[in-house]
Amino acid sequence: MFFASFLTTVFWLSFKILGFMLALVLGVAYLTLAERKVLAYMQLRVGPTQVGPFGLLQPIADGIKLLHKELVLPNDADKILFVFAPILTFSLSLAAWAVIPFGPDWVFADINVGVLYVLAISSLGVYGIIIAGWSSNSKYAFLGALRSAAQMISYEVSIGLVIVCVVLCAGSLNLKEIVLAQNDQWFVVKLFPLAVIFFISSLAETNRTPFDLPEAEAELVSGYNVEYSSFSYALFYLGEYANMILMSAMNSILFFGGWLPPFGWPWLTNIPPIVWFLGKICFFLFLFLWVRATLPRYRYDQLMRLGWKIFLPLSLAGIVIIAAFIVWDAQ
């Protein structure tokens, strides 16, 4: 009896995880279509329209084309690590979603240290890029990997310090409790400068414009993934866009109330929580695309100066001010 109950639990959990992975991959596929459409309209074009109605089948056609390409393994590459790197990057981009709450009762693992888990998983992502750059045995790939590692470590410091401020305000490391702590007022109201720092750091953490220096085409051809093709390149591609969606979810949870509606009006609370949460994720994804369409790429010295000389002091000052206010309020 116990064994049957255990098998049933494992089956349903596996079914839910596979369903979520399929939904996430579809979300990534149509995020690429949305990116092409948004960029096209901002450049007074119309974007893909030929494959399916309104171009809706374009991501599927792109995926089939990519998977039919030849898988090339460079002669001088470390074959095992070369294949392992994109698998690691894609796996980590999925693992972080285990603690993301989509609603008050919809989360795979409601652990008390959800914030630390997400921070740890996102920090491990740099290993996939470093391994890819080193194992490719290419100067361009190695330089791109070094750039990415320095960039991600620099901005993770700011992200970590901003999260400490949010945790001080919420009094918990649990992501659900952080959302519920914003029931009266979203944290973006009282932590607006830190919310801006977190969003800009999210752009750097995901190697997106204007911080896409690890993939700078003019300088490094394509950076750490220059030697990759076919399925291995697709895994890097899926991992990068899945991280974009993840950072959009974190922006929503930490500063915009997660699944909570913006005001306490009764007709707003009738809308399902997941609709609010997905709507906020879409808003931040649009900001990612808007920034790409409007801003030029930073120089590397500008990128480092912004992270270490501006964001780091501001986020440290934020911790001191918030901690002092909490102590003063408790007296």
Automatic annotation (TrEMBL):
Membrane topology field: Multi-pass membrane protein
Gene of this entry: nuoH
InterPro entries, per the entry: NADH_UbQ_OxRdtase_su1/FPO, NADH_UbQ_OxRdtase_su1_CS
Role summary: NDH-1 shuttles electrons from NADH, via FMN and iron-sulfur (Fe-S) centers, to quinones in the respiratory chain. The immediate electron acceptor for the enzyme in this species is believed to be ubiquinone. Couples the redox reaction to proton translocation (for every two electrons transferred, four hydrogen ions are translocated across the cytoplasmic membrane), and thus conserves the redox energy in a proton gradient. This subunit may bind ubiquinone.
Protein's name in the database: NADH-quinone oxidoreductase subunit H
Single GO MF annotation: quinone binding
Subunit and interaction comment: NDH-1 is composed of 14 different subunits. Subunits NuoA, H, J, K, L, M, N constitute the membrane sector of the complex.
Subcellular location, principal: membrane
Top-rank taxon: Bacteria
Record-listed E.C. numbers: 7.1.1.-
A GO cellular-component term linked to this record: plasma membrane
Family: Belongs to the complex I subunit 1 family.
GO BP field: aerobic respiration
Transmembrane segments: 12-33, 80-100, 106-132, 153-173, 185-204, 241-262, 274-295, 307-328
NCBIfam families from the UniProt entry: PRK06076.1-2, PRK06076.1-6
Subcellular location: Cell membrane; Membrane
Keyword tags: Cell membrane, Membrane, NAD, Oxidoreductase, Quinone, Translocase, Transmembrane, Transmembrane helix, Ubiquinone
